[in-house]
Design brief:
alpha/beta, Rossmann fold, Isoleucyl-tRNA Synthetase, domain 2, Isoleucyl-tRNA Synthetase, Domain 1, 3 domains, binds zinc ion
Length: about 675
C-alpha cells in the first residue's frame, strides 16, 4: 500500500468499481424500499457549492439506508427552470449586444433548448465526478415528453375541478423582464424617496407616486376620521390637477386606511396598486391603466405619453409646482417591491393571467375526503392537513410553513416568457414551479404505475430552506391533490452556503469556490467532509478553502492508521504464520469492544434522527483521539512485547469504523476496505 494518500488514484479506482457494480441501481437491491427524489438542478450553469452540499447530504443518507438493507431509489433530474434560465441566457445575449426581444420566439426557444441541453450534460458530468450513488437510469428532465404530458393532464384536471381561472387581475410586473410574477418572486427593498403633499381638488393629499395621478379615480378615508366625515357617500367635483379637465371623484370609506399617514386621505389608483385595486372591486370604481408593458405612460394625446415612471414623476412634480399645487415634500423611507432578479421596481398592472385558486373549495375524491374528513375543501386546507402528517428536520420549519400556508393567496401560474411548458391555447408558459410542484408524482409516474406504487410516498425530501415556500409547500398540495397521499414522509432542510465572512457566494462578489476545483485539488471525500462537518441542518454553512485543507488531514489520518495496521499484520505473520484471532478475548480487550458497541449504537441513533453532522463529528473524534492516538498506540507497545491480541481488536474496530464512515467518506473507505482484504463492496455491507 502506497505511503501517501493520493485522492486522485483512490477516487478513480473506486469510481470504476462502483460503475462496474452498477451501484445506485435499485433493481440490484432487495429489502424495503427507500426513495429520495433529488431536487433537480437548474439546467443553466455549473454545479455550485449549494448543489454539492445537497448532493453530499443526500448521498450520505442513501448510502446509509442501502447499508441498512433497503432497496434505494435516489432519482436524479434536471429542471428547465423557465424564467431563471431565460435570465442566464439573456445575459449571454447581452454580452453579444443582442436582446431576446429582437429574436423570433421559435428561434429563441430552440437556442435556449440547445443551451440548456449543453448545461444539463455538463452538470451531469460534474455530478458523476462527485461519485454520488443515484439511479442514473431513472434520470428525468422537466421537459421530457412524458413529464410534460403528465403536467398538462394535471392542468386539465385542475380546470375541470374549477381551480384554474383565467381573469384580469392586478399582477406583479417587471418592466425590464416583461413578465408577470407570483408574489414569491417579488422582494422588498428599503428605499429613500419623497412623500409629496399635493393640493388635490378640495383636499390635501400625500403620495409617494405623483405620476399615478393620471390613473386616479377616487379618494379614500378611514370612517373614524372626523376630518372627512361630512364627505360620506358624496362625490367631489374639481379641476384635475394635471389635465385641468372637470372631474368628479367619489370619496370612499374603508377602515383599513391609516388616518396617521399623510393627511389621512389617500388618492385611489386601482390600475397600479394592489390595495387600491381591492377598493375598486369593493366600491365598483373604474380601473385606469396608464403604463404599458415597458413601464411607460400609454395615454395617447397626453403630454406625458411615452415617459417612463421616473421621467413622468419629475415632470409631473414640476408641473404641480408651477401650478402652485405642490404644498411640500418630505423625505420618506419605505419598502418598495422589486424584481428578485434585476431589482427593477415592480409595477403592478392589470392583466389577464392564469391563476391557480388555492382558496376555492372543490369536491374531494375519496382518499382526500377520508384525510380531510370533509366533502369539499380548498388546496390550502389540503396542504394544511398534509403538513401535519410530515416530519420536519429541523422541526421549527413546520411551524413556519403552516403560518405561511395560512395566508396563501391564489397563484399566478402564467409567465410571459418563451422558455417553458406552454399553457394550452395560450402564448404564455407555466411558472416553472408549476411543473416542479408535481415533481415527486410525475417523475415516478413516468416510469409506470408499478414504480409509482413501489416508491410513493417517497421517504425524504431534502432541500434548501430557502425554497420551503416556492417548492416544498407546493409539492405538498399538488402531491395530495394528484394522489390523495403526501409526497414525502419527511422534509430535511439545509442552509445556504456562505463564505468566511458570511456572505452568499456570487460571481459578482468574486467569492465563489467551485466544488469541482475542490474535488480536483483535494478529492470528492474531502469536499463532502468539509461540507458536512459542523453543518447543523437548517443553519447556513460556512465554506472556505482552509476548511477543506483541514478536512483532508483527517483522510490522511485514516489512511495512515490503516496502512500501519496492514504493515503490522505482515510483520506479525512473518513471526507466526498460523496466528489467528483468539477465540476468547481478555477482559481488557472485551471492554474496548463493548465500549465500541455502545459508541456504534450512539452513531446509528444519530443517523436515524438525521443528525448527520453530529454523527460525523463523533466518528471523527473517536477515530482520531481514541482509536489512533490511544488504542493503536497501546497496541504498538503490546506487539513489541509479543502480545498480539490487541492487534486483532484494532482490526475489528477498523472494519467497523470504515463501515460507519462509509456514508460520509465513500471513496477512501471503499478503497481501504478492499486493501484490508475484503472481496465484497463496502457500499453493500450491512451495518
Ligand atoms: Zn426583472
Amino acid at each position: 500500500m502506497e505511503k501517501v494518500y493520493n485522492h486522485k488514484k483512490v477516487e478513480k479506482e473506486v469510481l470504476k468499481i462502483w460503475r462496474k457494480e452498477n451501484l445506485g441501481n435499485p433493481e440490484k437491491e432487495k429489502g424495503k424500499t427507500f426513495c429520495i427524489i433529488m431536487p433537480p438542478p437548474n439546467a443553466n450553469g455549473r454545479l455550485h457549492m449549494g448543489h454539492a452540499l445537497m448532493l453530499s447530504i443526500q448521498d450520505t443518507i442513501v448510502r446509509y439506508q442501502r447499508m441498512k438493507g433497503k432497496k434505494v431509489l435516489w432519482l436524479p433530474g434536471f429542471d428547465h427552470a423557465g424564467f431563471e434560465t431565460l435570465v442566464v441566457f439573456e445575459k449571454e445575449l447581452e454580452k453579444k449586444g443582442l436582446s431576446r426581444f429582437e429574436i423570433p420566439k421559435e428561434k429563441l426557444y430552440k437556442e435556449i433548448l440547445k443551451f440548456a441541453n449543453q448545461k444539463k450534460k455538463e452538470i451531469r458530468n460534474q455530478m458523476k465526478e462527485l461519485g454520488i450513488s443515484c439511479a442514473w437510469k431513472y434520470e428525468k428532465y422537466t421537459l421530457d415528453k412524458d413529464v410534460v404530458k403528465l403536467v398538462l393532464e394535471t392542468f386539465e384536471r385542475l380546470k375541470n375541478d374549477g381551480l384554474i381561472e383565467k381573469s384580469e387581475r392586478l399582477v406583479n410586473w417587471c418592466p425590464k423582464h416583461k413578465t408577470a410574477f407570483s408574489d414569491l418572486e417579488v422582494i422588498f427593498k428599503e428605499k429613500n424617496s419623497f412623500l409629496y403633499y399635493i393640493k388635490y381638488g378640495p383636499f390635501e393629499v400625500a403620495t409617494v407616486r405623483p405620476e399615478t395621478i393620471l390613473g386616479d379615480v377616487a379618494f379614500a378615508v378611514n370612517p373614524q376620521d372626523e376630518r372627512y366625515k361630512s364627505y360620506l357617500n358624496k362625490k367631489v367635483e374639481f379641476e384635475h390637477p394635471l389635465t385641468g379637465e372637470k372631474v368628479s371623484f367619489p370619496v370612499v370609506f374603508d377602515k383599513r386606511i391609516d388616518p396617521n399617514f399623510g393627511t389621512g386621505i389617500i388618492k385611489v389608483t386601482p390600475g397600479h396598486d394592489f390595495f387600491d385595486f381591492e377598493l375598486a372591486k369593493k366600491f365598483n370604481l373604474p380601473i385606469i391603466h396608464i403604463f404599458d408593458e415597458n413601464g411607460k405612460i400609454n395615454l395617447k394625446g397626453s403630454k406625458y405619453y411615452g415617459m417612463n415612471i421616473k421621467e413622468a414623476r419629475e415632470v409631473i412634480v414640476k408641473d404641480l409646482e408651477l401650478k402652485g399645487l405642490l404644498i411640500k415634500k418630505e423625505s420618506y423611507l419605505h419598502s418598495v417591491p422589486v424584481c428578485y432578479k434585476c431589482e427593477s421596481e415592480i409595477e403592478p398592472r392589470p392583466m389577464e393571467q392564469w391563476f391557480l385558486l388555492l382558496n376555492k373549495k372543490f369536491r374531494l375524491p375519496k382518499k382526500l375526503k377520508e384525510l380531510i374528513k370533509k366533502d369539499h375543501a380548498s388546496l390550502k386546507e389540503i396542504a394544511l392537513a398534509g403538513v401535519k402528517l410530515i416530519k420536519f428536520e429541523p422541526p421549527r420549519f413546520k411551524k413556519i410553513l403552516i403560518n405561511w400556508l395560512k395566508q396563501i393567496k391564489d397563484w399566478n401560474i402564467s409567465r410571459q416568457v418563451v422558455w417553458g411548458i406552454k399553457i394550452p391555447n395560450s402564448e404564455d408558459v407555466f411558472d416553472t414551479w408549476f411543473s416542479s410542484s408535481q415533481w415527486p408524482v410525475v417523475t415516478l409516474k413516468s416510469f409506470g404505475n408499478n414504480v409509482f406504487k413501489k416508491y410513493y410516498p417517497t421517504d425524504v425530501m431534502e432541500t434548501g430552506y430557502d425554497i420551503l415556500q416556492f417548492w416544498v409547500s407546493r409539492m405538498i398540495f399538488m402531491g395530495l391533490y394528484l394522489t390523495g397521499d403526501i409526497p414525502f414522509k419527511k422534509v430535511i432542510l439545509h442552509g445556504i452556503v456562505r463564505d468566511e465572512r458570511g456572505q452568499k457566494m456570487s460571481k459578482s462578489k468574486g467569492n465563489v469556490i467551485d466544488p469541482i476545483d475542490i474535488v480536483q485539488k483535494y478529492g470528492a471525500d474531502t469536499l463532502r467532509l468539509g461540507l458536512l462537518m459542523g453543518n447543523e441542518m437548517g443553519k447556513d454553512v460556512i465554506v472556505s478553502e482552509n476548511k477543506f485543507i483541514g478536512a483532508q488531514r483527517f483522510l490522511n489520518k485514516i489512511w495512515n492508521a490503516t496502512r500501519f495496521l496492514i504493515l503490522k499484520r505482515k510483520e506479525i505473520e512473518k513471526l507466526n504464520r498460523k496466528l489467528k484471532e483468539p477465540k476468547k478475548f481478555s477482559q481488557e480487550s472485551k471492554k474496548i469492544l463493548k465500549d465500541f458497541e455502545k459508541f456504534k449504537k450512539e452513531i446509528l441513533t444519530l443517523m436515524e434522527k438525521d443528525k448527520l453532522s453530529l454523527a460525523l463529528e463523533k466518528l471523527y473524534k473517536f477515530f482520531w483521539f481514541t482509536f489512533a492516538d490511544q488504542i493503536i498506540e497501546n497496541t504498538k507497545k503490546k506487539i513489541a512485547q509479543g502480545d498480539f491480541e490487541a492487534y486483532f481488536v484494532c482490526e475489528r474496530l477498523l472494519k467497523e469504523e470504515l463501515k460507519l464512515l462509509h456514508p460520509f467518506l465513500p471513496f477512501l473507505t471503499e478503497y481501504l476496505w478492499k486493501k484490508i482484504g475484503n472481496k465484497t463492496l463496502l457500499a453493500q455491507q450491512g451495518l
